[in-house]
Amino acid sequence: MMSEHSTIDPTDASTERPERPTAVTVEGLDYAHGDVSVFADLSVGVDAGTVTSVVGPNGSGKSTLLALVAGVLEPDAGTVTVAGDGDRTVGYLAQRPEFRPQFTVRRTVGFYCSLVAGGQDVDALLDRVGLTPVADRRVGALSGGMVRLLGIAQAAVGDPAVLVLDEPTSGLDPEMTRRVAGVVTDLAESGAAVLVATHDLHLVDRFVDRVLVLDRGTLRSTGSPADLRDATGADTLDGAIAALTRAGGSDGVAVSAGLDGGVSR
Amino acid sequence: MTRAHVLAVAQREFATVFRTRLLVVLSVGFVGLIAGVAWLGASPAYLALSFDLLTPLEALVPVLAFAFGYRALLGDRERGELARLRTYPLDHRLYVLGVYLGRAVGLLGVVLVGLSTAALVVPLTGTESLTAVAIYGTVDSPALFLRFLILTAVFALVALALALLVSAAVRSTWNGLALATGAVLALVVGLDGALVGTVTATLPAPDVTATLLALSPTSAYRSLAFALVFAPGGVTVSGGSTAVIGALALGSWFVGSLALTGVLVRR
Amino acid sequence: MRAVVVAGAVVGLTLLVATTGFVANPAAEADLSPVPFDRTLQTGMTGVDVQQAEAAGHAIPRGQVFYSQYEYVVGFYGIDALLAGTTGRYTEQFGRPLAAHVTDFAGTDPTLTAAGYLNRSRDAPMGWTRATDAWYVVGTAARTPAGPTPVPFGDRDAATAFAREYDGEVLDWETLSDRRGSRSATGPPASPTDERLRWADRQVRGASAIRERPVSVTVGEDAPTVAAAVERAPPNTTVRIPPGQYDVNLTVTKPITLEGAGTATVLDGGGNGTVLTAATARVGVTDLRVTGVGDRELVSVDENEVADDPAWDSRIRLVYGRGDAGIRLSTAPGSLVENVTVQTDANGVVVFDSPGAVVRRVRIDGRDGSTTGGMGVLAMYSRMVIADTTVDGGADGVYTHHADGLVVRDSAFRGMRYGVHEMYTSDTLLVNNTITGADIGIFVMTRPTGNAIVGNRLRDNGVGVETAGTASATVDNVAVGNQVGISIGTSRSVVANNTVAANGVGLRSTTLFPTNDVTGNDVVANDRPVEVDLGRLTVWAVDGRGNYWGSVPGTDRDGDGVVDRAFRPTDALDSRARVRRGEYVLAHATAVELRRAFQQAVPGLRPAAVVDPAPLAAPTRPERLDRLNVSTRE
């Protein structure tokens, strides 16, 4: 799967995109933590069947955006529209997911499955994220990576059209990171819109279809990793992002305007 | 679907209770204490046993109920469970209901086991009687203890509702612990103490004490016990029955707590 | 199925079942129909009153009460007792009466004898009727041996008819209760000690005239024998008996005084029967010694003789009343036995049908080293005075049978079965006596009333004082070194201001009617302060003053002399807390307080125990404890 994904020509991304329906539409989003405004009039879209990554420095509002998309937070103004007609439209993995340590993996996932219609197959779901071998282990005895996989399984319960994953790989070893990434791309392959927040730009470069560059609550740029490199002339995605977020207010708008219209304004 | 959701949540809470070592230890302790009080008193009558247990239960039931309840919604909040569950098609009020039911079943189970163990003292320790003299049942009967048991169960349910309210209102473990401790103290002594203060400070005392009892769930419980257990048992309770006020009070505390919990859990 | 559903169903079902507790009416559940009277726990009129009436075939109105918090049905002899039993101390102790029944005289054809005793037809069985629905005829001449009585009827017409015939008035229960309210004593009466002492003084003064009679005959000078001297002496004179040994088996039938010269004058019965019998009023026997008494302390009786005697107590009269004695006063009212020594294996002085007799400064040596033998002084049907008398050995120092009003004072009883043994005897006064080494120092039996046991000293007995009956007073006694200090078998009585120290058990409660006022007693340094046999929870304090138990847990913060914490002398923790620091601290634990919160509630349903809600901070009679050298710290 990973190899297959890596063969996609990034330059084709923009030409392919219109064929994919938009799964998430954010329009005119305002949100403030108390008196501190996080977003003012933010608009963005996420396509189905893709892995979209939100990147940006700490405090840029990545987690907040994800929580708003997931419906965990309510916007002060604006709308978050999520496509999909299922029982559960958004699956959400919080940054450091925790589960009741007393229960086994199977019981934990089983509980979430019982909350959605249609009798989700717990074992199939565990198999999909590779947790079958530890299905009967107590959550309290799982490694951090396993818990993350459990969280992803939980997010996938009910086959939601949109999966919102906040830092699914942070703190994981490379092997587990690859495994998580594989599961994520697999979910996108099966048609879901996957919105990921991450600091791991290497991972973004390899697995992500589209990047949303967020800085201090403002969308600096969107596009495939290749688009971003091209637009900034940087050799690496790292450099491209750095350039985009360093540029500051008006430049950012200009750059993103020069790219594809992920920004609807 | 609604029923399935509530049951799923309740089942998880119920299972959590019995997988939490602290609660198991506390439950065993509760049963032990209640049984201990009963066996030490060695009352040969249910009425006397109810009297013996009233005061210990006034203190122990809130403690147990808060142990069962104060972490329930707070733990979910801290683990991100409350946020996570917003992505599921589950009404938050149903969630609160499920949590309440699951914990309530556990709590009532412990209370029932405790009181049943205590009740065994009556048939098992029966003091010797004079055989030449006619013996009759007196008014003492298991029925009185059953009434007492029901009232205690209701008191436990109200205390659990209050515990969930605290659990939904706080944001951190330490706050939760502090508020829960405060709430237990308020239930056990604080509200009654305030009542006593109010009643004795107002001279001449207006005869509203019976109504004021509603302000304290513990006093409401006690007044119900006097009205429905002890008075029918032949104990003179002056001033007549306060059963209606007590029942209304407990009902209001129960409904109010759960309703407010349903609102707070969403925040 | 989910565990929570199963558990929930179990819990829910249990609670559902428990709600039946609200459906059932506990009061209605109990079977409150009357039981045969002999199956009730009986109280009320005294044993002797009941026995007399029943022997004579007279009916006594009776009641029985079912209390909400007492498993036994309590039977009351007499309507006054029933009224007392439905109020006051009884209801405090046993809860509210669920049902009260009275004997129903309707249809039993009741009549009154000339003396006012109730007779009824023996053909119709006496039934019971609800006391609160019954009709009571008052104001007739109807009475029991205890006094006038209302006559209860279940049927109003029958009551009216009876009232018309005997000139009475019909009342319902409520009116009767109101009217009798002030009269039916629910608490113990004031102790009549002074009045009885004055009566005793009058008897002694009256009898002392017997010693002042002029000497008419001197034995050996004016007559060869005592019998001849008595024969010659005119009434109201003295027969002087100089020192010497005289063989005597004599009955005196005129009011004279036999006066010896002290212990040197010896009347010897030769080991055969009674030595000296007085069979008329105001005989005096003074200043001499009596020996050679027969050895039959009891007389075996012919059953036909018992059956022929209509008296209720014929057996006692025949068996006890005819034993051998040193001196026998038989129908000799106002007689005096003074300054006499009797050596006897049977009885010392028997006083039979001789009211006003005085036995004073008499010394009786009974059978040694044994608790068998006769009685030092045996009083039957005689309100008499026993004073300054010493009895050693034998069965009982003083045995009374139906000798109401008797006074025993300033006497000593040592090494015997019972020091003073009261049977069927009410209204006595036992004051300032010293009793040591007896199985039981003072033993009151047979449900009498109005006995006063005041200021006696009881040392090294099995039981110091053992009481029974009602409306009695046991006050100001000192019980030291007995196995049991004072054993309380009374109801509605006072046990107050006694000093009970260094006994195996200080106070023992054996009553089934724990309605006594137990207050002001100093109970210290006993192995166990209190033991409770039978009975239920008993509260020992009156008007906020309990007893002194030594240093008990708790403090007297407001300085009113009462410790602000209830003391439970029957409780192992409390009782040890008086001497051991660990238990003292533990006794104040919240856990203990929680458990004790309602422990005085519903006493009738509690196991046997004693609570003193107001233990005293200081002894009532500190000087006695000082004198006894008893450490109050134990």
TrEMBL record, chain B:
Superkingdom of origin: Archaea
Keywords: Membrane, Transmembrane, Transmembrane helix
Molecular function (Gene Ontology), one example: ABC-type transporter activity
Listed transmembrane segments: 21-41, 53-73, 94-124, 144-165, 177-199, 244-265
Keyword Membrane: yes
Keyword Plastid tagged: no
One cellular component term from this protein's GO annotations in UniProt: plasma membrane
Pfam families for the chain: ABC2_membrane_2
The protein, known as: Copper ABC transporter permease
Provenance organism: Halorientalis pallida
TrEMBL record, chain C:
InterPro entries recorded: N2O_reductase_NosL (IPR008719), NosD_dom (IPR007742), PbH1 (IPR006626), Pectin_lyas_fold (IPR012334), Pectin_lyase_fold/virulence (IPR011050), SCF-Subunits/Alg-Epimerases (IPR051550)
Keyword annotations from UniProtKB, A to Z: Repeat
Highest taxon of source: Archaea
Residue ranges annotated for the Periplasmic copper-binding protein NosD beta helix domain, each copy included: 382-551
The UniProt record lists the keyword Aminoacyl-tRNA synthetase: no
SUPFAM superfamilies: NosL/MerB-like, Pectin lyase-like
Full protein name: Copper-binding protein
TM region(s), chain numbering: none
Xref: Pfam families: NosD, NosL
Organism field: Halorientalis pallida
Signal peptide positions (record): none
Keyword Transcription: no
SMART domains tied to this protein: PbH1
